[in-house]
């Protein structure tokens, strides 16, 4: 096990105490919000550090009792009984601490933009894209996150050819970032008379929602075109040129939004463009950092088939970590915590292994 960075632990405790004192002194509202954010981030780390230090002190006391021959036998026997459980607790706290002290992804606390596109499989793929969107929508609801659709292109038989939405809340990206990739479904479509299983797919991309501070878009680097927008099937026809298409000239990225308000469309399209450019920058940095060692889960390759949903057998398999869960009906209803937590744990184990190699 990698050695715990004692100096860093001391510094975090000192910083936590400093924040507590500053919050108690009644700072201005904007300063208080920033301090509160850092406080809630440090709180679980410092709590674990203090529990670890307390366990070490208790071990030291028990060792002293065992070493002191003037202490009566019953007392020493009791100390000997307590030590194994205390050693186990220290070992667990050390593991917890190592995970809490791992280098943080700067985007983890951000909200996210989720893009789902139907792949191979025609109407069935669009229906599956709709199932995936509802799965993330229900999962978000259990977390208290807000979901807002930015743009959607509906499939002919239902579902979506493409849907883009923001999921707003603290830590959304940290929970959903490993959902990026190709999701495959195997099931018997309602229209299939012979009961033959069809395979179709949808691609999911999860981007950290970028703010203006994260990425600068120069006015001369974009071209904005307005177009006539109309609703599905000719309904709600909007007779003004309200749909917006933004082209980012240096990269060739194109983003469109076609709601009723041109002002809203421009804001939404810029929001998606900013997040896509931020994602490109992050991918570039990640690729440089992991040129010699690629994390199995964290590669973010969106052309990679990551998961299969097999309806006849009621199972979901994540191919990156070889995890199969026989709870497809619950997962498709938004109960994806077990899968999400397993992916995060696997990624953290990889990070710990890398740290061990470096030390």
Summarize the structure.
This protein has 359 residues and is of the alpha+beta class. It has helices at 6-24, 29-67, 73-100, 122-143, 172-176, 262-289, 328-332, 337-358; strands at residues 112-118, 146-154, 160-168, 181-187, 198-208, 222-227, 243-248, 253-257, 305-310, 315-318, 323-325. The strands form 2 sheets. The chain has an 8-stranded mixed β-sheet with strand order 2-3-1-5-4-9-10-11. The chain has a 3-stranded antiparallel β-sheet with strand order 6-7-8, covered by helices on one side.
Write the topology of this structure:
Blueprint: H1 6-24, H2 29-67, H3 73-100, E1 112-118, H4 122-143, E2 146-154, E3 160-168, H5 172-176, E4 181-187, E5 198-208, E6 222-227, E7 243-248, E8 253-257, H6 262-289, E9 305-310, E10 315-318, E11 323-325, H7 328-332, H8 337-358
Parallel strand pairs: 4-9
Antiparallel strand pairs: 1-3, 1-5, 2-3, 4-5, 6-7, 7-8, 9-10, 10-11
Helix pairs in contact: 1-2, 2-3
